[in-house]
Design goal:
The complex is a heterodimer of chains A (about 550) and B (about 160). With about 550 residues, chain A is α/β, with parallel strands linked by helices. Chain A folds into three domains: about 170 residues, 3-Layer(aba) Sandwich (Rossmann fold), CATH 3.40.50.970; about 160 residues, TPP-binding domain (Rossmann fold, 3-Layer(aba) Sandwich), CATH 3.40.50; about 170 residues, Rossmann fold (3-Layer(aba) Sandwich). Helices cover about 35% and strands about 15% of the residues of chain A. Chain A has a six-stranded parallel β-sheet with strand order 3-2-4-5-7-6, with helices on both faces. Chain A has a six-stranded parallel β-sheet with strand order 11-10-9-12-13-14, sandwiched between helices. In chain A, helix 3 packs across helix 17 and helix 15 crosses helix 21. Chain B is α+β, with helices and mostly antiparallel strands. Chain B is about 30% helix and about 45% strand. Chain B has four helices and nine strands, in the order E-H-E-E-H-E-E-H-E-E-H-E-E. In chain B, strand 6 and strand 7 form a beta hairpin. The longest helix of chain B has 13 residues. Classes of the chains: A alpha/beta (about 550), B alpha+beta (about 160). Chains A and B meet through loops of A and helix 1 and helix 2 of B.
Chain lengths: ~550, ~160
């Protein structure tokens, strides 16, 4: 059928099963927005800043497992998307970002609102395209979605010049993708799997180190099955939170810079480390030469380039985590309990639990998280975070049991991620209780997205742990820079309750520990608009355990 | 240690930039890079000389494979490959030195492709040691300008990709 490029793009999105896109209009995408005026099958959510569109698409993708889609105009619209694209890239989140571009005759002439988007996004995307012929559009869209969601997922950028949107052509959507140079390997090598099986069978002190790859492969059930069949304790990365139930006796919680003491001790002491969909990030390993020094390492990952990138690996298995775990479960025999090892871990858990003291009439941030957990744990809840102390406390003091219930910016550490990502998550899971744990610094970085939430009556709960500081940076200044609180005092912030009110959201302030629970209950009861609760918390509370940069992970400050 | 690697990529706009960007971003040093089309017009072949140890080479190879447009990457060690490079050298020359330069050119099987009042331009090809040897001998006359294509390489024997 004959369509314009703009109509063809909408038709293609529809064919890909896209039901929602997050975007912001502008000059060169006018023809596309005009086509949207007639074709409303794909719901368009108007954000208030393009960064909010990218993070919303990302939050939507993490909550649903589907590809998130965002849209921006050329030049500044596109450059505003880039933080969100880089964020999705670092955390391997499937996303398609569509940007308008100046018309092809104007390309390369420093035209109005021109930016070299394929050039800019090359290092921060899985792949990108500049469409120069309208006939290529259907194939490019098909390929982009395939690349975004297959193999190691990631963001794909499609840059479309204005004249492509208006050119008519004979549209046909391809039903197959054929990219000869892109064939991700999904089956683990049988020989490697049998080597891994033997190593697991022989191990006396094994630990599983699970990352975000378990979640993107939808392999949480397989992880649980393997861990339970072989009695192997499991620690997760920040990205792996939710991949393994933290209520299980085998759970060690998170490892690394702000990991639990028992996870870090177990990894340091283990004789077999089974890394699954994780990438040995510096925040996980600390001093890399001292990371799991006595362990044989099995590394399961879909991305061959991750094998051996940061650490030497004894048994690499390249493949889809779900398939590889299934093969391992089938092969490995039931294993006797490592009584001594489990006993040792129990002792560490008893000696070094996650702890804080709620005292002196001032709200401790950890207490807010714990109370929220108490009240939300029996509901279908998704926790989203900003970045910094709020994120670490939310990671440590909330107990996660299911995948896709924890949404946080891991690799890039993007302040301002939480609010728009919470919006995206709520759009993807309308019935879920979505809570964004925020800091008083990060909440302001994309506060304009409160409008998006209000206009769409999203009942997200924004719990600001307001300590009047850029807390994590302040903590480093306290511990490493002689308490030189250089530019981290945020006490001159605006009144967040009034801000919430001005946006049309509900704002509340809580200053006393005994009011925390009631405020959370009240917030949970509001279902037709967002709620922002400003919890005025202890100013100089620190996140512990803390592994100072450059130290081994067992050399942590416990309190 | 130097490695010569061949990278077969889809012949598409921006591919060179993807490959070179990858090297700079990941901190690998490109010593030389030569690129052109292959027997199949849809494919380009890049010959890249890089400095690094075995684990660097492994990482480079895997990272190159991650690029969607990369079809094949392989190492071409000197003993398994024909390696050659083309050089144009504009050498200062006078009536007195012209004969000697011509002689050197003959020894190295270089072609004299241009002669002017005060210079001669030589076209020379061969492996690294031959090219470096010739340049060394020509230096004493004064090399006014020099251009090298960078190494290209092909595996020996009748094997194809």
């Amino acid at each position: 059928m004959e369509l314009t490029g703009a109509q063809a793009l909408l038709e293609s999105l529809h064919n890909e099963g896209v039901d929602i896109i997050f975007g912001y209009p502008g000059g060169v995408v006018l023809p596309l927005y005009d086509a949207m005026f007639a074709d409303k099958r794909v719901k368009h959510i108007l954000v208030r800043h393009e960064q909010g569109a990218a993070h919303a698409a990302d939050g939507y993708a993490r909550a649903t497992g589907k590809v998130g889609v965002c849209l921006a105009t050329s030049g500044p619209g596109a450059t505003n998307l880039t933080t969100g694209i880089a964020n999705a890239h670092m955390d391997s989140i499937p996303m398609v970002a569509i940007t308008g571009q100046v018309a092809t005759p104007l390309l390369g002439r420093d035209s109005f609102q021109e930016a070299d988007v394929t050039g800019i996004t090359m290092p921060i995307s899985k792949h990108n395209y500049l469409i120069k012929k309208v006939e290529d559009l259907p194939r490019v869209i098909k390929e982009a979605f395939h690349i975004a969601r297959s193999g190691r997922p990631g963001p794909v950028v499609i840059d479309i010049p204005k004249d492509i949107f208006t050119t008519k052509f004979d549209y046909k959507y391809p039903d197959k993708v054929d990219i000869p140079s892109y064939k991700p390997r999904t089956e683990g090598h049988p020989k490697q799997i049998s080597m891994a099986t033997k190593a697991i069978q022989a191990a006396k002190k094994p630990v599983i180190y699970a990352g975000g790859g378990v979640i993107s492969a939808n392999a949480a059930n397989e992880l649980k099955e393997l861990a339970e069949k072989c009695n192997v304790p499991v620690t997760t990365t920040l990205m792996g939170i939710g991949a393994f139930p933290e209520t299980s006796a085998l759970s060690l919680g998170m490892l690394g810079m702000h990991g639990t003491a028992y996870a870090n001790y177990a990894v340091t002491d283990c004789d077999l480390l089974i890394a699954i969909g994780a990438r040995f990030d510096d925040r996980v390993t600390g001093h890399i030469a001292k990371f799991a020094p006595n362990a044989k390492i099995i590394h399961i990952d879909i991305d061959p380039a991750e094998i051996g990138k940061n650490v030497r690996v004894d048994i690499p298995i390249v493949g889809d985590v779900k398939k590889v775990l299934r093969a391992l479960i089938d092969k490995v025999g039931p294993k006797e309990k490592h009584v001594q090892w489990v006993e040792q871990i129990e002792e560490w858990k008893r000696k070094f639990p996650l702890a804080y003291k709620q005292e002196g009439g001032i709200i401790k941030p950890q207490y807010v998280i714990e109370q929220a957990h108490e009240l939300a744990k029996d509901r279908d809840t998704i926790i989203v975070t900003e970045v910094g102390q709020n994120q670490m406390w939310a990671a440590m003091f909330y107990k996660y049991t299911k995948p896709r219930t924890w949404i946080s910016s891991g690799g890039l550490g993007t302040m301002g991620y939480g609010l728009p990502a919470a919006n995206g998550a709520q759009f993807g899971r309308p019935d879920a209780l979505v809570i964004d744990f925020a800091g008083d610094g990060s909440i302001q970085m994309n506060i304009q997205e409160l409008t998006t939430a209000v206009n769409n009556r999203l009942p997200i709960k924004i719990f600001v742990l307001n300590n009047c500081f850029l807390g994590m940076v302040r903590q480093w200044q306290e511990l490493i820079y002689d308490r030189h609180y250089s530019h981290t005092n945020l006490c001159n912030n605006p009144d967040l309750v009034k801000i919430a009110d001005a946006y049309g959201a509900v704002g509340m302030r809580v200053t006393k520990p005994e009011e925390v629970r009631g405020a959370i209950e009240k917030a949970f009861a509001i279902n037709d608009r967002p709620v922002l609760v400003d919890f005025v918390v202890a100013k100089e509370e620190n996140v512990f355990p803390f592994v100072p940069p450059g130290q081994a992970i067992n050399e942590m400050l416990i309190d | 240690m130097k490695h010569t690697i061949s990278v077969i990529v889809e012949n598409k706009p921006g591919v060179l930039s993807r490959v070179s960007g990858l090297f700079s971003r990941r901190g690998f040093n490109i010593e030389s890079l030569a690129v052109g089309t292959t027997e199949d017009p849809n494919m380009s072949r890049m010959t890249i000389v890089v400095e690094g140890d075995e684990s660097d080479l492994e990482q480079i190879t895997k990272q190159l494979y991650k690029l969607i447009d990369t079809l094949k990457v392989f190492d071409l060690p000197a003993e398994k490959a024909i390696q050659t490079e083309l050089v144009l050298a504009k050498v200062a020359a006078s009536e007195k030195t012209r004969a000697e330069i011509t002689q050197i050119a003959e020894i190295f099987r270089a072609k004299i492709v241009d002669v002017a009042e005060t210079s001669m331009t030589l076209e020379l090809s061969g492996d690294e040691s031959k090219v470096d040897g010739a340049i060394k001998l020509l230096t004493k006359f004064g090399i006014k300008e020099l251009v090298r294509t960078g190494k290209i390489a092909l595996q020996r024997g009748s094997a194809e990709l």
